[in-house]
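Transcriptional regulator (Flavobacterium hibernum), 136 aa
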Amino acid sequence: MSTLSKPNHIGRKISRIRELRDMKQEALAQALGISQQTVSTIENSETIDDEKLTEIAKVLGVTVEAIKNFSEEAILNIIGNTYNDSNVVNGNAYSCNFNPLDKLIEIYTEKEKLYERLIEAEKQKIEYLEKIIKGK
């Protein structure tokens, strides 16, 4: 496929930006005040009038230029150039700014203190009840 004859399919670009925004056609349609079928028609169109494109850009939270210049290759380039796998655990970006073991020990110590206070309160209750029983 020649890159020179690649069409500038605005509808497909709108569709990809919508998907990247995790938005369904129904949500876009509702925000625009049109039907889902109309959104589908727009996304299948190679060209869209500027007024409608401006409305769509506003709903998607991007500029008209961003839609017109959208390129999946550029997005993949950005991700590839900024991706740092040293912070990835099981496929998820993970950046821990504390030691989980320290937190676990801290919680365990706090739990011990609470149990000790509970035991002390129970001892005091028993002593109080014994005094009442002996006083009778």
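DSSP finds seven helices and two strands in the chain. The beta strands are 88-89, 92-93. ok done for today
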